[in-house]
User: Fold these one by one.
Assistant:
Number 1:
Amino acid sequence: SDSSKEHDEL
Amino acid sequence: MNIFRFLGDASHFAAIIILVLKIWKTRSCAGLSGRSQIAFAIVFTTRYVDLLTSYVSLYNSLAKIIFIFSSYATLYLIYFRFKATYDGNHDTFRLEFLLVPCALLALIVNHRFQVVELLWTFSIYLESVAILPQLFLISKTGEAETITSHYLFSLGSYRGLYILNWIYRYYVQNYYDLIAISAGVLQTLLYCDFFYLYITRVIKGKAFALPA
């Protein structure tokens, strides 16, 4: 899935 | 956190340190695009407003604070401290040509129509093209100081490593973000021409100059 809920990258 | 992402972040930190050291040691920001640095300051500011809304890790928060702080420190060095050495005559790329399309695209192509998310999306699009004024400046003058080319190589490597990180995350964590990936690929492609010249010239000890 396109996991876009959390942006955990910088 | 995987090795590619860690090395990517390390490369990003290195780029910023190289940039600040170059300005500080040479007492000059000649050859640097203030407009690209303005774009990066906007990128970090709009992306990291989530510092206030979501916590990922201490590493993540510290890195965000450092990126925001260093981007404004760089602007201070270019536009105030060493303004006399700033190459404004050659730094003429119109930032609105990047800001407006990125803002419009963020409004159209996003994951969720919500303020923080739209700012994040805008920052992702803007980062992908933020280096264009710098590349434009180099194309106008036809050359770059060796240390400036090291800066650009570090910055480009950061994005290249992030692509490896996304490939890894796709296979290992089944995680992917199409907006980040497509913008990141575009960003990396913009560096390819530079990478070629960097490897063929600077690594061999020659000055970075565009082919006549």
Number 2:
Amino acid sequence: SSPVPRNLFGEIRSPGYPKPYPNNNITTWDIRVPKGYVVKLTFNYFDLEPSQSCFYDYVKIKADKKNLGRFCGRLGSNTGNHPGRRNFISNGNRMHLAFHSDFTNEDNGTVIPYRGFLAYYQAVDLDECDPNNAAEDDERPQCQHFCHNYVGGYFCSCKIGYQLQSDHHSCKVECSSELFTEASGYLSSPEYPQPYPEDLQCNYSIRLQKGLSISLKFLEPFEIDDHQQVHCPYDQLKIQAQGREIGEFCGKEPPGSIETNSNEVDIIFLTDESGFSRGWKIHYTSEKIQCPQPVPLDEFTIIRDPQPVYRFQDYFIVTCKTGYNLMEGKRKLLSFTAVCQADGTWHQPMPHCEIVNCGNPTDLTNGAFSYISKPADNTYQAVITYRCNEPYYHLVTGAGGDRFTCSPEGTWVDQDAQGRIPACVPVCGKPVDPVVEVQR
Amino acid sequence: ILGGRPARRGSFPWQALTGIHGRGGGALLSDRWILTAAHTIFPKGAAGNSLSLEQLAEEANVFLGHTNVEELHKIGNHPVRRIFIHPDYNPDDEYNFDGDIALLELKHPVTLGPTVLPICLPDATNTTLYMDGHMGYVSGFGVEKNFISNDLKYVNLPAIAREKCQRWLDSKKRDIPMVFSENMFCAGFLSVKQDTCQGDSGSVFTMLDTESGRWVATGIVSWGIGCAKGYGFYTKILNYLDWIKGIIRED
């Protein structure tokens, strides 16, 4: 007996082929192909002494501990069992051939030469994923979820959310670090809406860019094991936003919608060793975080082009009414813009508007000013007038007159918007006690 | 002032008392200029006219605001910044007082009030100012009856027609060959003892402009032959308006 090397194909000849085979010969072949393949054998030429039930000379084929047949005869013979062009396929990667010839090939005194046989075998890929190809159950473990055949082998894979275990066949739920980074999406308990597995420690993380606020909406059905008296003793669904816990949920009533005001949310799902609840499903969405609506601090402050809602990266500009200055504390501002930040706050506080103050009017040499509007009022729109120490001086003004108004720019200006104050010019030739002749 | 009367405070508020080369007078223009006679700064025939105008300005004394000399001194001196002498004035020509006009710029403007007020300058188009008989008033701290006055006096004098001035002067020319230029006029009486005298130089001859109601300076006390012995001669301010305004306005 000669084992045939583990090639993918080969040729098997009867002894002496193509010459007639000898008598009294027993030859066996043990065909082996690599694991993952089966043996396919075909006889290209078969010429053995025919006999009833192949009693005299025969070829016996065996595989997988089963006889695939006993063959003898030649084409056209009435007796025997010629294999023809049949394909003999094993279930495993081995096939055994046995050739037996008796002591003679004489028929009615005539020796008839029988040439024997020429056979070819080839390795054919075994589709391990086809359950019909299972040879022995204990030798071929099945994939728990998905089986993938390839030439010479196969591998297993698992459903989404499951992880292939070290035996490469079984699958276990993997939900310990699920990460979601899209602006919106769905997440659910494993197998949802089918009952979730036991012994889960799932952690779903939603991480979005700063400035976005995540909203969670629970869908129907919502079913987590609970207890009437004790809050969530068996299975718990916890929701955290930036480290702080928003809530712990169970039961059959979905929590509804939750506004997290955070760009980072963690959903932790813990289950014990039993239960048949269907689990939960969340649709999360996000939008730019909102900032508080800006409110003017006084009636002189103007918010340019106000929006109904301000969100992250939005901004607003503040100005004051004419005659008022933008102030931040005691500091005068030339302009003001506030930007909505990622944390939902404005990057600087609202300023206020203070009325323009022109300060004390310039003193007039040899004259004075007086307030027309309100005494000692140097604020916007206050009005003063200049006069001279009459009758010794008289007022010489510009075209804008002797009245000065506190302008929006913070200066005293006349009616022509000029700032130059009048002058007191001496009055000549007007003695207070002129000579008057009386006696004539 | 001979034959005059004491001035009341507030009647001649432009009157200045000067002390440059002896007593003199002047008149306030605007709030920082004193109009006076050039010979009060550079006297005729004075050997010691060697000081510069800057030095003279440093030493000049100008008083304003009272009719009494002692009170004037108490009020205080008004320092002089600059002195402007008319270029036509020749201190070496004893007989010709042409261009006898000067301006003193005070260092600090004065504050006007009832006792310190400026005199006006005349309107250049006024043709009646120097007509024969046009009355005017002259004030001054000068000599009165051989004594220098401690109080401001004033006298009412008529302007005299040029021909009369010249005729009178011609009668005196044999002894004193004085020049009566067109930049002068004369005023006063031949026989009435009313006149200006030494110490009144630089004071102004004023007239009331009835149209504007303002007193205007038409002359500056300049020279005479004795006092109250004929006409007195005055610098004709009307001829120097451009010069005056040119200096004052430039400042």
